[in-house]
Design brief:
The chain contains 15 helices and ten strands. The chain is α/β, with parallel strands linked by helices. It has three domains: 33 residues, no CATH class; 286 residues, Rossmann fold; 81 residues, no CATH class. It has a six-stranded mixed β-sheet, sandwiched between helices. Helix 1 packs across helix 3. The protein is globular, with a radius of gyration of 24 Å.
């Protein structure tokens, strides 16, 4: 087999049609692209994920008014003088999600312009931008730059551009958690709950119009793979199907339009179309140093991992995402499959308690029916030295509430050794925490 030919910038674009073949300005997947063809390449990848966002017609060729409303959350730390716990623990430090959101908004805006031009000013969906920040803007000095950027460039294509501060949802919870990993985990849950509430309110306010509201998550394939592996590592495997396969949370949907686009392609798009835009200042895209690996959160470790292997092994993230897409809904498994899983599983396996019932009182994900029994089965209580035994404890003020089985294993680990007295405001339903764990030694 002949060796593959290397490509460099300046080579003829592989997508241009003769005789108008332009020199390449971008390289992606060993293929040279001119600027226009590269934008079309990414746009095609995006449109495959949103097939319903088209202008629809009746049989007599009358336009059907769209009910699709897409909300793009944009995580942005920005410049702020406030040093709240949310600012200190902000887990989107490297601006990767901000950059991906800018690219997503730009591609969606271009799609809307194209639809309006081809369909007599009609469009197949309505675009909303939600800038998610650590704190709520209160002074003119802290006016969010990214919000102003969107208002300056995309007012004509969007129905709303709003800001959402996570400090109002977090309260003092982060300060009460003992480790960086638990605080990062909690902040991720807080952001999910805040966005879900925003989407549900948007749908409720327009219930008479039967709006179909969806979140368009601005994460490239590496970000989706990171979310998958993080959910598994944190003990929230049920979130993988709910958020990434079933694409539904509460009354709204989650769509991943960039899941076939790589982080490097996002960076290339920004360089081609926004390199001279002084209004767009995202800062460094490098992952900041955060100390030794043992002090990093699961999200930070996975973020660093995918950043390191992206150039050498770009198919790793794609393989993770494609594997996850093949998962079946655990709630629809036939009884004989569940029985087979239960009988064939070891005592320590979570499948030993299938089927699964209930929702976690903190994160809302599905949980095993008897978490306490599973913890007992995987716990070693004998044959070890006393100083080798570690006990998971929750604060005494909340030890007398309900049962350990109201929490999933991931939230049990997140809340261990914390000093909170009640469940924080962002949980649903709101209740007191369980009487958990001092008797369970892991």
């Amino acid at each position: 087999m002949a060796p593959s030919k290397s490509v460099t910038l300046g080579d003829p674009c592989s997508r241009c049609r003769p005789p108008n073949i332009l020199p390449s300005t971008a390289l992606a997947r060993s293929e040279p692209f001119c600027t226009k063809c590269f934008a079309r390449f990414l746009s095609t990848k995006l449109r495959k994920q949103i097939p319903d966002y088209k202008v629809a017609y009746t049989r007599d060729k009358k336009v059907i008014p769209t009910r699709h409303h897409a909300v793009v959350p944009v995580f942005y730390r920005g410049e702020t003088s406030t040093q709240s716990s949310v600012v200190r623990e902000w887990i989107w430090q490297d601006n990767t999600e901000t950059a991906a959101a800018v690219v997503l908004v730009d591609l969606l805006a271009e799609l809307i312009r194209e639809q309006r031009q081809k369909h007599a000013k009609n469009q197949g969906f309505v675009l909303h931008i939600l800038v998610v920040r650590p704190t709520t803007t209160t002074t003119t000095e802290e006016t969010c730059r990214i919000t102003e950027f969107f208002k300056q460039h995309y007012t004509q294509e969007t129905a709303s551009i709003e800001e959402l501060g996570l400090d109002t949802f977090a309260g003092d919870v982060l300060d009460a958690l003992p480790s960086r990993a638990s605080r990062a985990d909690a902040l991720g849950l807080i952001s999910r709950r805040a966005i879900a509430q925003y989407l549900n309110k948007l749908a409720a306010d327009h219930a008479a119009d039967n709006w179909q509201v969806a979140e368009l998550a601005a994460e490239p394939v590496e970000g989706v793979a990171q979310r998958v592996l993080a959910s598994v590592a944190k003990g929230r495997m049920n979130l993988v199907y709910r958020d990434l396969v079933n694409v539904s949370t509460d009354d709204s949907a989650i769509i991943w339009p960039l899941k076939e686009i790589r982080t490097q392609e996002v960076t290339t798009y920004l360089d081609l179309f926004f390199s001279t835009d002084s209004d767009l200042q995202l800062g460094s895209s490098e992952i900041p140093a955060q100390g030794p690996a043992k002090s990093l959160s699961i999200d930070a470790l996975l973020r660093s991992y995918f950043a390191e292997i992206e150039s050498a092994f770009p198919s790793v993230a794609t393989t993770v995402v494609r594997t996850v897409e093949k998962l079946a809904d655990p709630s629809t498994c036939s009884p004989h499959i569940l029985e087979k899983l239960s009988s064939s599983s070891s005592a320590a396996s979570p499948f030993a308690s299938v089927p699964q019932y209930g929702s976690c009182a903190v994160c809302g994900c599905a949980r095993e029916a008897k978490v306490s029994e599973w913890i007992k089965k995987i716990t070693v209580n004998e044959g070890v030295q006393e100083d080798e035994v570690t006990t998971i404890e929750l604060p005494e003020a909340i030890q007398e509430s309900s049962s350990i089985d109201s929490l999933c294993y991931g939230c049990i680990v997140m809340l261990k050794d914390s000093s909170i007295s009640t469940l924080p405001d962002w949980t649903a339903p709101r209740a007191s925490l369980s009487s958990v764990l001092s008797e369970y030694e892991l």
